[in-house]
Each structure stands twice: as C-alpha cells, then as structure tokens.
Amino acid sequence: MDVSSAGRPARTSQCKARARLTTLLCTAVAVTAAVIPASAHTGRTGATPSAPSADPVVVVDCSSQAQMRPAEYILACGDGNNRLVGLRWNTWGAKTATATGTDMVNDCVPYCAAGRFRAYPVTVTLSHPQAWPEHPDVQRFTTIRLLYTDTAPHPVPKDVSYKLVY
C-alpha cells in the first residue's frame, strides 16, 4: 500500500480511477451529441414519439449558420446597413415561413458612416427551399420577400423579393 508522508494511504489509484470515469463520461456525452440530429434538440418535454418527420427548413445567415425563426436577420452582410429586427414568426413550414418585424435601413446621408438608421414596418416571407450546397441533406430558404406595410426606403418598391445567396 502506498503511504503518504503523513502516514495516510495515497489516493493516487482513486484519482486515476476518477479521471478514467470522467473521461469515459465526457466521451459518451460527446458521442451522443454527435449522433443525435440537431432537429432532435427541440427542448420540448413530454412529447410522445411519432413517425419521423423531415428536418425543418432553415435560413442561412451571413456567417453561414443555419437559423430557424431568427429574431434578427442581416440583409446587408457586407456593412450591416440593412437589418431585419423584432421578427415575430407566424409560420415556419416546409415551403414558406412568414413573420412581421422592422427593417432597419441606414439612410447613408450624407454618407453611411454618418447616416441614421430608419425603421420600416415589414412583412417577411421566406420561400423556395432548396438543398444547401454546403450541407446537401439540409433544405434552406432561397428567396426572401419584403412587403413594407407603410412606406418603403427610397428607392425600394413596397413589395420586393431577393435571392438569398448564403
């Protein structure tokens, strides 16, 4: 038996066993997280098992991150001068998603660094899901439609659609 200088048994073997157990548990958690699809991490409790459903459609942001029901979405990735904020999603389906919110647009007067952000109420519709090239097993919305419910920022029409390239 190993004895410490104080005359007590050394805890080396206990420490090694605890370290092995900790490593084993951490590995098990990491493997479980890698195996369970992200769509299973819904945070819902009490759900009853049902037939497997298709993974949800996502919208990809400027950082190439998949998002579902984002509260904010940057439209002008290069400079951040156009951003959707306060998004409240009414629907999020396999074909379309709709929300209401505010489009914050920099008026760039007299130039963008000195400009003011102006708020425009907007209805947002995401549509045209397609396979995401970086993750072909994931569908992502490829079109965004903005319908301004009051005025639109000059010279943008009140109803405009853009291709989402991310």
Which range does the strand content fall in? 35-45%
Helix content: 10-25%
| Order of strands across the main sheet | 3-4-5-6-7-8
Which parts are unreliable, with pLDDT below 50 for 5 consecutive residues or more?
A: 1-6, 8-53
Q: What structural class do helix, strand and pairing data support?
A: mainly beta
Please give the number of β-strands: 8
SS summary, helix count:
1
What's the Cα radius of gyration? 25 Å
What's the overall geometry?
globular
One letter per element, helices H and strands E, the order comes to HEEEEEEEE
The CA-CA distance between the termini, in Å, is: 64 Å
Mean pLDDT metric? 77
Biggest sheet overview: 6 strands, antiparallel
Structure notes:
The protein has one helix at 12-35, and strands spanning 59-60, 66-67, 73-74, 82-92, 97-106, 117-132, 135-148, 159-163. By secondary structure, it is mainly β. A six-stranded antiparallel β-sheet has the order 3-4-5-6-7-8, with no helix packed on it. Strands 1-2 form a two-stranded antiparallel ribbon. A hairpin with a 2-residue loop joins strand 6 and strand 7.
Notable characteristics:
single chain; 166 residues; 8 strands; two-stranded antiparallel sheet; mainly beta; disordered N terminus; six-stranded antiparallel β-sheet
